[in-house]
Amino acid sequence: MLSLPTPLxxxxxxxxxxxxxxxxxxxxxxxxxxIDGKRRVLLSxxxxxxRSTAEMWPDLIGKAKEGGLDAIETYVFWDVxxxxxxxxxxxxxxxxxxxxxxxxxxGLYAVLRIGxxxxxxxxxxGFPVWLHNLPGVELRTANDVYMNEMKNxxxxxxxxxxxxxxxxxxxxxxxxxxxENEYGNVMSAYxxxxxxxxxxxxxxxxxxxxxxxxxxxxxxxxxxPMINTCNGWYCDQFTPNSPDSPKMWTENWTGWFKNWGGPDxxxxxxxxxxxxxxxxxxxxxxxxxxMYHGGTNFGRTAGGPYITTSYDYDAPLDEYGNLNQPKWGHxxxxxxxxxxxxxxxxxxxxxxxxxxxxxxATVYATPEQSTCFLGNTNATSDATFVFEGKQFTVPxxxxxxxxxxxxxxxNTAKVNAQTSVxxxxxxxxxxxxxxxxxxxxxxxxxxxxxxxxxxxxxxxLVDQKDAANDASDYLWYMTSVHLKDDDPIWSDxxxxxxxxxxxxxxxxxxxxxxxxxxxxxxxxxxxxxQDVKLNRGNNLIALLSVTIGLQNYGPMFDxxxxxxxxxxxxxxxxxxERVIKDLSGHLWSYKVGLHGISHKLFSVDSDSASASNWxxxxxxxxxxxxxxxxxxxxxLGTDPVVVDLQGLGKGxxxxxxxxxxxxxxxxxxxxxxxxxxxxxxxxxxDNNKCVSKCGQPTQRWYHVPRSFMEEDVxxxxxxxxxxxxxxxxxxxxxxxxxxxxxxxxxKTLELACQGRPISAVKxxxxxxxxxxxxxxxxxxxxxxxxxxxxxQNACVGKQSCSxxxxxxxxxxxxxxxxxxxxxxxxxx
Length: 828
Ligand code: GAL
Known about the structure:
Helix 8 runs parallel beside helix 9. The protein has an 8-stranded parallel β-barrel, surrounded by 4 helices. The N and C termini lie far apart (62 Å). It is built from 16 helices and 41 strands. A hairpin with a 7-residue loop joins strand 17 (398-402) and strand 18. The longest helix has 20 residues, at 144-163. Helices cover 17% and strands 31% of the residues. The protein binds beta-D-galactopyranose (GAL). Beta-D-galactopyranose binds next to loops.
């Protein structure tokens, strides 16, 4: 055997290893992105790593791959990575490198949206609040202090990626990177400095030398070589600002986010598919679902203000990672269709034909193949017409894709994928809620309520961001008012009036609770006004101001005030006469945070002294500012876990010391906006369409990731701010209850339920069945064979089954020329 000298052997091994990390070449022209010589139709989906846990990533990314995606898009969240200036955190679910390597291991590409302003319904749009508190800083504009920090963080991330060879140019998964985020939407508010800033962003990005293209979304004047991209529910009308830029869609909103007091958003599978198909009909090259998995706003990461803890988004994967069916499956079918004609779409000659009545045909032709799109953008009328000698019917608001220009391979309005109805099953490990033993303790606020003790003081009312520096949602504003006997304010009717900007105020006078008030979503300024009894001599006013996520969007969003801007006044009324004492310029003392939070009452290993202060006697109900604690057994199995917090007011919850987010089940969604009519996929979608759950708690269920729990005993701690009743709290698993399908002839119906066997077929009919999932009935015609027994034979006892939907399988019908359908309902 040939033996090599040691240095040569090293060189050989080095070259061998290196050859595995071959550079991947990413280039583009006005038509398509080319990866390693192949022109691509790129389908991507957003998954934000901190909105799930590292343990969930392989499953989520695997489901994205199985759903037919090529790439995963994520923002990078500056505030959590650099919580204090030059102190970094990339641990646990903040392990960006591990996330990207998981994407790479699954064989997918990545789109890295560094921002580092990201919006994303994330608190303060992802900016760390210390940035706002740097002397001389102005955010998102040509300001040296800001640009220095932005460059520092961007370079840190880029270098981290380079170190790990994560750019495609190094053989890694990252094919595109983004700088800034939708600056074009707000740029005019920054005047000339805005333009100078965006030019600087482009130069700074280019100077990072990442070897893959940079994008800027919603930036119609993006400096070259930045590719400007589109965000929205529809982007078929979009054209980039350079003939060399491919048509790219960075955010196809698959639904919408939810705010406290808002209903549940829902965007239909048909409409999402329609938007995607129209985008590729009109020359699209890259499309990304925002979100593909929305996930959970753990801790205090929800922005807004007033964004809920759930960031489900009605995405193809639900908050917990389950398939949101039929959306996931209907899009999977579309992805397969688009990929099957990738070469024709990216190379073919394009011919557009306007067929009238909002019907458009597009032919992509290469010498080998022609592929046609027939798009009907009419919101109400189906269209029947002759195209290239053949008759076609395209339902209203839908697109048919004909891979060979002859036969319909996919229509966006014809959903063949199964619908899964999810259920929340009781915890089989113990019988909750009865088994939960609660202890409690009051939040200790005497230092504030009785002594007015803070850690800083000022002769003015300060902004909560400036004072709290985001260390907590809570800030005490305390002042004393000395009223002499002869003060003109004395009267029988005295009022305390506080002008607030958000979002909750709890007022105390001389140690006694006076009242609370909170903002409504979208109207964050309000006036708290309550009658008050004051003492002659000294009076202590203690105001607890609470934020619920910092503003994340809009021009100068970073300057939106939080807390109590004032004035704070006492008013005395004698008949028509009013005497006002303005306390705004008094000496105010400030205290950030709550005693219980700084003493880590939520932690499992809180010291024994404080542990002994938990009482099991006389569990209070509807008591404000109260800590509750219990232990529980984790539900058996692997299905995702939620905790039902119905009965509680508002606060924060921790499992084994890890925050599962803010809770506010007592906040019902408003009564307006929901309709009793069925949701119609036709016509333009916006976030007010097809909403549900009006009048119900905005969020009753809170995700407890499996990795937060131990197999045996777990601790749940609640900090209850408004007052509530924990006696109904219970843990459940989220799983598929019923599966339905209404599939079209000539398709293959796939039924599956997350690894559980199908136990019974409740309904099956092939022909023209009527009704919807849960209320299917037979129509006027049916196959000659017994559909129920065919389904039973094929599916019962199995974890998944597939059925050819045809007369071959179900026997001939007397339905005539209509397209027959198979309606099915199975249980588990
Ligand atoms: C976009 C923004 C995203 C997200 C989205 C709404 O304007 O770029 O970060 O906020 O809106 O979910």
